[in-house]
């Protein structure tokens, strides 16, 4: 390899490493996080690991800190579905829809609950409305 090319690649690698390290420090310590962000992240990790009771507790904690966050509400409701608490999940999605009638994922998930409860007409209406709001859903 030519010495000039080697130097260029070496300095590029060093610069990229320093940029990545700087961003990691900023993202971890300096960037302002919204209320409930850490609890929400913990809840998502627990949800992914199948620890649904613990995830629900963390989603509830996150929602106490940021009650208007629709993604936290959706995570809570999805956790309730997996715990078999379909009526509570339905109420949670109804609340999310009341807060933001344009939040398509809430309609799609509510449709899933209606489907599991045997409310097929309501499920189909929710699915169609979700697709109307977001055709890529």
User: Mean of the pLDDT scores?
Assistant: 90
Radius of gyration based on Cα positions = 21 Å
The ordered H/E elements are HHHHHHH
Q: Please summarize the sheet with the most strands.
A: none
Number of helices: 7
Span between N and C termini?
49 Å
Question: Which structural category fits the helices and strands?
Answer: mainly alpha
> What helical percentage do the residues reach?
over 70%
The proportion of residues in beta strands is under 5%
Unreliable residue stretches: none
**Shape designation:** elongated
* Oligomeric state of this protein: single chain
Number of strands: 0
Structure overview:
With 137 residues, this protein is mainly α. The chain contains seven helices and no strands.
Would you kindly provide a brief summary of this structure?
Helices cover 79% and strands 0% of the residues.
Helices and strands, with pairings:
Layout: H1 3-30, H2 37-48, H3 52-65, H4 70-82, H5 86-99, H6 104-116, H7 120-133
Helix pairs in contact: 2-3, 3-4, 4-5, 5-6, 6-7
């Amino acid at each position: 390899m030519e010495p000039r090319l080697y130097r260029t690649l070496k300095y590029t690698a060093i610069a990229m490493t320093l940029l990545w390290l700087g961003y990691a420090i900023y993202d971890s310590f300096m960037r302002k996080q919204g209320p409930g962000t850490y609890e929400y992240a913990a809840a998502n990790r627990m949800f992914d690991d199948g620890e649904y009771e613990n995830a629900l507790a963390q989603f509830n904690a996150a929602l106490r800190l940021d009650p208007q966050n629709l993604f936290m509400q959706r995570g809570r409701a999805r956790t309730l579905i997996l715990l078999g608490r379909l009526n509570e999940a339905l109420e949670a999605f109804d609340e999310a829809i009341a807060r933001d009638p344009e939040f398509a994922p809430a309609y799609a998930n509510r449709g899933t609950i209606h489907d599991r409860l045997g409310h097929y007409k309501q499920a189909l209406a929710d699915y169609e409305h979700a697709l109307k709001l977001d055709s890529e859903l």
